[in-house]
Amino acid sequence: MPPSKRPSSTAAASEDKLSRTRTEAVHEALRLAIIEQSLQPGARLPEDAIGESFGASRTIAREALGRLAVEGLVELKPNRGAFVANPSLEEGREIFLVRNGLERTVVQSLSGKLSATNEASLRSHVGKEEEASGRDAVRSMRLAGEFHLQLAAMTGNQLLERYVREVVSRCSLILATYGRPHSSDCAVTEHAEIVDALAKGDFETAADVMQRHLEAVADRALPPIKAGVDIRDVLARYASATTGPALENENASTSSPDVKVGDRRRPRKQE
Ligand SMILES: [Zn+2]
User: Fold this and answer.
1) 29, 117, 185, 194: which sits with the fewest CB atoms below 10 Å from its CB?
2) Distance of CA 205 to the CA centre of its chain
3) How far is the CA of 185 from the centre of ligand 1 (A)?
4) How far is the CA of 214 from the centre of ligand 1 (A)?
5) Using alpha carbons only, what angle is made at residue 75 by residues 69 and 78, rounded to the nearest 5 degrees?
6) 45 in helix, strand or coil?
7) Cα of 39 to ligand 1 centre, how many Å?
8) What residue segments make up the domains of the chain, in order of their start?
């Protein structure tokens, strides 16, 4: 490459880097707004409004939305734009199941191998969680998620860290969709128990507490299976009351335009 070309290619490279950094900043800000429930599931995310808010181009806004779509936090609809994802209950259960497996691997990797610095950092983090608990719901929720991300980062396994980050974000979205508004999603005492067990090298206890802990989070986030509304169960009562015995057979109910077979699988999915 001739020397005269160097300055412009360096400039292009640094511009490219700057644009990547800006995309990361917009991506991170939107991620937080979604998991902290400031942007509700199903909310529209217009590229121009996002660009204006962050002083960024629409291209950068589009790239950030694309990344969030890969992480499952945003849904891109052809010709309609981007929306905060609106996960179904079934997807919610699948995500919690995967999270359980990943975080078991995290405690397995860390048990008995926690450095003094890492242990001190985790204990200080739990201290901050205790301070925020009951006082500042948004901060509590953010700190709770960060505890799990810190643990994953301490394994030094970047792939594990990335997957944990993704499922933790998705769990926050599930909580936003189906849980109580701004309910803190983690019990701080259980975080402290996990750190104690890891420091002692007691994998069984650490894994056991982590599993119970995540099951409790899932219970708060997801309604019990029986409470999931099956539209056919609800409408069957109305159908028999309004149309009489003629429609009380299976063919009639499945051919009704308002009651589709597919609704059974994703009863609460909304546009
Ligand atoms: Zn937790």
Assistant:
1) 117
2) 26
3) 7
4) 7
5) 110
6) coil
7) 22
8) 19-84, 89-225, 231-264
Cα 103 to averaged position of ligand 1 atoms, centre (Å): 10
Could you tell me how many residues make up the chain? 271
Neighbours of 178 (CB within 10 A): 18
Q: What is the pTM of this model?
A: 0.71
CA-based Rg of the chain, rounded to a whole angstrom? 23
- CA–CA gap between residue 16 and residue 13 (Å, rounded): 5
Q: Which residues pair with 82 in a beta bridge?
A: 76
Nearest Cα residue to 147 out of 192, 100, 212: 192
Residue 217 CA to ligand 1 center (angstroms) comes to 8
User: What are 205-235's pLDDT values in tens digits?
Assistant: 999 999 999 988 888 777 665 545 556 655 6
* Residue whose structure tokens are 């792939």: 159
Residue 4 CA to ligand 1 center (angstroms) comes to: 56
Which class for 169: exposed (0-12), middle (13-18), buried (19 or more C-beta within 10 A)?
buried
Please give the helix or strand (H or E) that residue 154 lies within, else none: helix 137-154
Under CATH, to which class is 19-84 assigned? mainly alpha
Q: Which of 239, 231, 238 is nearest to 267 (CA)?
A: 231
Q: How far is the CA of 105 from the centre of ligand 1 (A)?
A: 15
Q: pLDDT tens digits, residue range 38-72?
A: 898 899 999 999 999 999 999 999 999 999 999 99
Both tokens assigned to 269: 């999915």
CA count, 13 A, side-chain hemisphere, 233 = 8
CATH 3.40.50.2300 fits 89-225, yes or no: no
